[in-house]
Amino acid sequence: MAQKDLVLAFVKTFIDMKGYPPSYATIAKAMNLKSKSNVHRMIHQLKQDGLIELVPHRMRSMAVIDKSVDKVARL
Q1: pTM for the model
Q2: pLDDT digits (tens, 9 = 90+) for 7-46
Q3: How many independent structural domains does the chain possess?
Q4: How far apart (Å, rounded) are the C-alpha atoms in residues 71 and 75?
Q5: CA atoms within 13 A of residue 18's CA, in its CB half-sphere
Q6: Do 42 and 11 meet the contact criterion of CB atoms below 8 Å apart?
């Protein structure tokens, strides 16, 4: 599993458990990354892939986009 997929899974689980998205520092600590810039890069890759949504200029404004409805609709 790619590291960005692990980040997405962590974000989903964190939001389900806490009710709000994790900070970049929390993600970095959970993934054993030394730099928040690596988290920033992965989060923006996930955004480009259409898997998460970010609200500019707001802290903890991450939302996971549920693609399961799209998959069911294609059946």
Answers
A1: 0.81
A2: 999 999 999 999 999 999 999 999 999 989 999 999 999 9
A3: 1
A4: 7
A5: 12
A6: no
